[in-house]
Amino acid sequence: MIFLSFKTYKEATGERAVYFCQIVKKVISEFNIRIIPILQPTDIYRVKKEVGIEVWAQHADPIDPGRHFGWLSPYSLKEVGASGVVINHAERPLDEETIKKIITKAKIYQLKTLVLCQTVDLAKKVEQWEPDYIGYEKEELIAGSLSMVDVEEDNIKKLANSLKKPLIIGAAISTKEHVRKTLLFGGKGVILASAFVLAKNPEEKLKELALGFKNY
């Protein structure tokens, strides 16, 4: 599976978010693999209505609906069409107690969860809280020239062997070879952003990444 983070790139906001998700829908149909756009909350409802594919949110707060001005409730995300939420991205870091609380609230409102972890120890601890997926990526490698699969092979293998939850690998994932290595090391999928959103030809880049699953 491929998680595609749109972050807050202007290239993937509003009308462009719809355009990118139409590409995703096309590639899903062609390659028969699961590809999940992770959208800004402002784009979720429109994409879900116009494109009709699975989409996730980039963050949620551990709250119920009510008097929480400026917060983002799991309930509201579910209502506008999100199927899941990513928790603890390096650009939106959280303390452990908050991570645990968000997982709990997400379950209440039937949202799936992917928790991103920068360390092996955190990944093992997070698994005890029963997220649906656990991600492993180092902040310093995000959008860089060295991929996680190039420098963290041993830790990826250790996590894949020790975790019961599916392992998702991120940070500088940009080629089908990165996808292939992720699978060979025991991961179940990848998460990426700029390699797709900022690609000269996003459709061809996504097809290339999808081929990593075929070659595997």
Layout of SSEs?
Elements (H helix, E strand, L loop, with lengths): L1 E4 L9 H17 L3 E5 L1 H10 L5 E2 L16 H7 L3 E4 L8 H13 L3 E6 L2 H8 L5 E4 L11 H4 L1 H10 L4 E4 L5 H9 L4 E4 L1 H4 L4 H14 L1
Parallel strand pairs: 1-2, 1-8, 2-3, 3-4, 4-5, 5-6, 6-7, 7-8
What does it look like?
- With 216 residues, the chain is an alpha/beta fold.
- It has a single domain, classed as TIM Barrel (Alpha-Beta Barrel), CATH 3.20.20.
- The protein is 44% helix and 15% strand.
- The protein is built from 10 helices and 8 strands.
- An 8-stranded parallel barrel has the order 1-2-3-4-5-6-7-8, surrounded by 7 helices.
- The two termini are 13 Å apart.
Question: Helix segment count?
Answer: 10
The CATH superfamily is identified as Aldolase class I
> What is the overall shape?
globular
Domain module tally: 1
- Mean pLDDT across every amino acid position: 96
For the largest sheet, list the strands in their spatial order: 1-2-3-4-5-6-7-8
**Terminal Cα separation, in Å?**
13 Å
* Integer-rounded radius of gyration: 16 Å
Could you describe the largest sheet, including whether it forms a barrel?
8 strands, parallel, barrel
CATH architecture: Alpha-Beta Barrel
Order of helices and strands: EHEHEHEHEHEHHEHEHH
Tell me what portion of residues adopts beta-strand conformation: 15-25%
**SSE-based structural type:** alpha/beta
Q: Helical content, roughly?
A: 40-55%
The fold-level CATH name is: TIM Barrel
| DSSP, total strands | 8
CATH level-1 class: Alpha Beta
